[in-house]
Design a protein that fits this description.
27% of the residues lie in helices and 27% in strands. The protein is of the alpha/beta class. The protein folds into two domains: 3-276, Purple Acid Phosphatase, chain A, domain 2 (4-Layer Sandwich), CATH 3.60.21; 282-395, no CATH class. The strands form five sheets. A six-stranded mixed β-sheet has the order 6-5-4-1-15-16. β17 (282-288), α7 (295-303) and β18 (312-319) form a beta-alpha-beta unit. α1 (30-48) runs parallel beside α2 (67-81) and α9 runs antiparallel to α10. 37% of the residues are buried.
Length: 396
């Protein structure tokens, strides 16, 4: 008999970027996007005959989700366990507390003692029976630096190197592998970097937990379910080690990246397929409006030539000194079907050197800075969250 698994990660429920506040429901409208993609996955799980759902970290975007955000996740869990699907919720860096024994956003659901809901907050193995066959799920939640110190891998004041992380993670996998029952099918689920990631410079890991793919993709595991990297990809072929990617686009670096989850079938041989979610469309346009007598009309003409219904749109407008500026609100009125419209105006002098003419809040300035730095883009979410925390501390 084959065991069918839904592998998803990086749900980021509560990510509010490029959304609007709905005063009637007191929510950010990006929450509707996240709910829609999760409902799509729940329906797909039923259609595909899924037995186990692996949620491999970063389920929430914040360690303190709102009641509405908690409700979206609870609805997703209820839809799955209502179909007799085992749900493994593994803590990522957006959930796992840095201090042991502190509650995470997933704790309250685990406290309810729901049948088939498994909350994984520490490395370990859980074995479930699927139609008379044992399936062992080994999990590594987001590793913290304190684990290296407690395990003697690192001194209290030393920065962790990739080699130290690789040794710690490989030995953790060794300990988990020893707990797999004989004859059981086995999966390893981990929220971390692997050195085999494509499309993102490994230098961007910057002290975060990272290992070689072959340190974790090995027997007795039949499949390795990975989270943390938002770009779907296979990083090791046998056994397959796969990042599911995120279910929704979070910024314009992901405008052209397909979003979804993975359906895995454990039979005589492990097979998997990518399942694309109905993620919100992002459109990033550049317009040179230099010398235009009516730049707003020119921008509207160009905007009308592309498909923008329901999309999040960013217009990067170039103008020359003395050109007539325009108010982006006029465009919003002409294109009400656009979900979110942002206009970034850049004035270029005679030497074609760009000078920003916008008024920025601190977070807007950081957002723009990160968008212009290819090395920082993959860590945009974490950097923005850290900046928010710092601003809250400064403001008291």
């Amino acid at each position: 008999m084959s065991i069918v698994i839904l592998h998803t990660a990086d749900l980021h429920i509560g990510d509010r970027r490029y959304g609007r506040f709905d005063p009637q429901r007191s929510i950010n409208t990006r929450l509707d996007d996240q709910r829609r993609s999760l409902q799509f996955l729940a329906d797909a799980a039923q259609k595909e005959g899924v037995h186990v759902a692996l949620l491999v970290g970063d389920i929430y975007h914040s360690k303190s989700p709102t009641p509405a955000e908690e409700d979206v996740f609870a609805e997703f869990v209820a839809n799955l366990v209502g179909e007799d699907i085992h749900v493994f919720a593994i803590e990522g860096n957006h959930e796992r507390p840095a201090i042991p024994d502190r509650a995470s956003p997933l704790t309250h659901i685990a406290t309810l003692g729901l049948d088939r809901f498994h909350h994984i907050s520490e490395p370990g193995v859980e074995v479930v029976e699927i139609k008379g066959e044992a399936l062992a799920v080994a999990a590594i939640p987001w590793p913290h630096r304190r684990e290296l110190i407690d395990g003697g891998y690192l001194g209290p004041k030393s920065p962790p190197s990739p080699e130290i992380w690789d040794a710690y993670i490989e030995e953790s996998v060794d300990r988990l592998a020893e707990q797999i029952p004989d004859g059981a099918k086995a999966i390893l689920a981990a929220h971390l970097w692997t050195a085999n990631v494509r499309g993102i410079p490994i230098s961007m890991s910057r002290g975060e937990p990272i290992c070689r793919a072959d340190s974790i993709a090995r027997p007795p595991f039949d499949y390795v379910a990975l989270g943390h990297i938002h770009r779907h990809q296979e990083v090791w072929p046998d056994p397959p080690a796969v990042y599911s990617g995120s279910i929704e686009r979070t910024d314009f670096t992901e405008a052209n990246i397909a979003k979804g989850a993975v359906i895995v079938e454990l039979g005589r041989k492990t097979t998997w397929k990518f399942l694309q979610t109905p993620a919100r469309k992002f459109v990033d346009m550049k317009m040179d409006l230099s010398g235009m007598t009516d730049p707003a009309a020119a921008a509207a003409t160009k905007l009308a030539q592309i498909e923008t219904d329901g999309a999040i749109v960013r217009l990067n407008v170039t103008q020359m000194p003395g050109d007539r500026s325009f108010d982006a609100r006029h465009l919003r009125h002409k294109f009400p079907s656009i979900f979110y419209l942002r206009v970034v105006r850049v004035e270029v002098d005679i030497d074609r050197k760009p000078v920003q003419l916008r008024t920025y809040s601190p977070l807007d300035a950081l957002d723009e800075f990160i968008d212009r730095d290819d090395e920082l883009k993959p860590h945009k979410t974490e950097l923005i969250e850290l900046a928010k925390d710092l601003l809250e501390e400064v403001r008291g």
